[in-house]
Structure formats: structure tokens, C-alpha cells
Amino acid sequence: MSLRALPIVFLNLGGEMLYVLDQRLYAQKIQNEKGKKIMQDIISNMFSERFLDEVFRPQEMCHRSAFRILFERLAHASIMRLNQPSMDKLFDLMTMAVKYQTLLVSKPHEILLVTLNHLDSILEFVADSDYCVDLIEKCYKRLIKTYSDMDEFELQEIRHSILNCLQDLRVKVSVFLKEKIQNWNGTFALANEGPVACQDFIPGTIIYYENDHKKKSIFKESKFNPGSRYEPAIKEGSYERKGNRVTSLGLNIYSSKRPVDTILAPESNYQRVNVVSDMETCIPDPKSRAQLDLLCRLIGKSSSSSTKNNDFKLNLFNNEEEEFIYETQIQKVLIDDQSSKIVSFDGSNRHKDDRLNKIMNQFSHKGDKYEDDDDDRNRKSKPSRYKKMDEEDDDDDIVSMMDRLNRK
């Protein structure tokens, strides 16, 4: 597991959270100034220097349940409040988007371009706030300094760490289903054609080289049909502050006119992390619990004087019926998943299994020892042998040993 994967997955998840919140604020017609204030409060906490110092410290990847608690604290760092179903839905949308982006990168270094796309989009949300813009600029410099010089192996290790963290999630998202990039069982449909990674060979060509002991030269080339259509990459993505990232992964896929719906598939292999407020139950590992506790304490509050009267609830569902269906599907998945892992044994109904009952009846309790029927019969048929064994057993008893010595 990579010790540098946490900042990448944190920034990507944070970017997806802000995309969804921005769309829902627009859909619920929240006042423009209030919506901007909410985004600024969340982003200022998310990119605060003390908080990022802890996130960028080399460490093991957090568990998904830790990310769930962490982003709930971030979402509630403003006057906005989310109930548990809405937060569950938000986290599902975040994790599935990041999983799709991580799966689809053509080369390991592209995962850094995806993160930069998130930073570019987040910057647009708070372009009016000089304070937030300065925080994002510092995060950008820290990100480039940490990851730009990494080789392919290190970046591939980061990619594997992220995929391992999200590997068993199969939540169906309507946006992905409409774009036909997700199947109805929750898995993603990965394209086997299109542009290849930059500086990679296009499938369909076999190159033969000859070696004249001085330099290698091409002897001949032959073509074959690879079965799909491939195209050369346009150019390499740029790490520059306002450079062309080339890839569209990591950009905001939610527009104001597009609904943000997620459909939970009860028949899928999706396993939900049941997050409760008790960190001891949720994060049993002491190191992970201490790490999560520190990160949560570094998250501040809204700069405005937030009171219960000023707080408002943001709902990620279009209506109460949609929320009820979502909760019902979640409960069904949880019940099915728990029942499939429980194996019950009933030791009280011994008479139902004659073979087991016969084996159990072979043992009888005599004194402080358990002896079976065969040993009892042997004891009666060979008393001298068992008498000698009893004397040897008595050797362990100091009192018996001294009595025998006195008799002699």
C-alpha cells in the first residue's frame, strides 16, 4: 500500500462532493450569496494549511468509513446540514465517480491530471474569494512538488491503493447509466478502443528489428487487425497551473439541468459501510482512530455565527418518495448481506442427528475425567495394567508419593 495515496483520493473525493453540492444548491434554488458562502466555508476548511499538512504527511490509506466521517464533518462546517440518507447518497456519488476515474486512466501519471482537473474546477467555485483562491494555489504547488517527479511504479502503486479502497462498491448512478459507462449490475463498462496513452504504440503493428552489433534498425513491419479502432493520443497532459490537462476525467459531470440521482441495486454485490457516530465502533484500529480524530479536530466551523435558526437542510433527493425508496433498498441490501454471513448451529436438538447423538453418548463423565465406553471395558478386562497406570498417575501427587515411601 502506498503511503502517498491519501492526498490524491482526498482531493478527488472532495472535488466530487463540491460538484454534487453545487448542483443541489442550484436545484433547490438556494440564494446565490448563501450558496457561495457555503462553498467558501467548506473549501476554506478543506484547503486550510494545517489540515493539508496532516493530509500530505506520508501515512497509510484511511478506511472508507473514516472518509465518510471526515467528509460529513467538512460538509457540516458551514450552515448547511445533511440528514443521514442524503449524506449516504452524497458519499455514494463521490466514491463511484472517483472509482470510475481511477479505473479509466490510461497511464499512472494521468491520475495526477485527474486531481488537477478537480482543483481547476474547485477554483471556479470560489473565484470571488481571494482567501480561498490563495489556499487552492498553495495546494496546487504542494501537489506538484510531491507527485510530479514520481516514476510510473510509484504512481501505479497509488492507483492500486485507491482501487483497493473502493473495489467492492457497486452503486448504480443514473448519470453513468445514461452515458452507458455503467452496467445495470453496478460494474463499469470500460472501452476497448479509442485513443491510446501518449507515447504508446497503437495495436495492430508488428515491428521486426535487426541487430548489426552497432545499432538496432527496423527490418520490416507487418499489420494485423486488432479487432478495435485505436487512435494516437493528441499530446501529453500538462502539469502547468493553467495548462491543458488533455483528459476530461475529473471534470464536473453534473450540470444544472441534469438530475443527480443514484439507484441502489439490491441484487448487486455492493456492501455499504454502516457508519455510526461512535468512532470506537467504526474505526477499531487505534492508529486509524487517532488519525481520524486529529483530522476532524483540524476542521473548523463556519466563519459566520451559525445558529440553529440560520442552519438549513440540503436534500439530495427530489422528493420524500425517492428518499423512502432509497432507504428501503439500503436496508434490504444490509439485511441480505448480514443473513448471508450467519451460520447457525443448534446443539440442543441432538436427537435429530442419530450419528452425532451416538458419538456424544460414547462419552461419560466419571469423577474428574472423561472416559469412553471402550476404555471402561478395557479397564475391567485388564485390571493389572490399569492399576499400574493409576500408580504412575499418583506419582504426580506428592502426598501419595510420601505415603508409599513410608510404607516401604
From TrEMBL:
UniProt-listed InterPro entries: OSCP1
Annotated Gene Ontology cellular component terms: cytoplasm; plasma membrane
Region annotation Disordered: where it falls in the sequence: 362-408
PANTHER family to which the protein is assigned, alphabetical: OXIDORED-NITRO DOMAIN-CONTAINING PROTEIN, PROTEIN OSCP1
Record's protein name: OSCP1 isoform X2
The species this protein was found in: Brachionus plicatilis
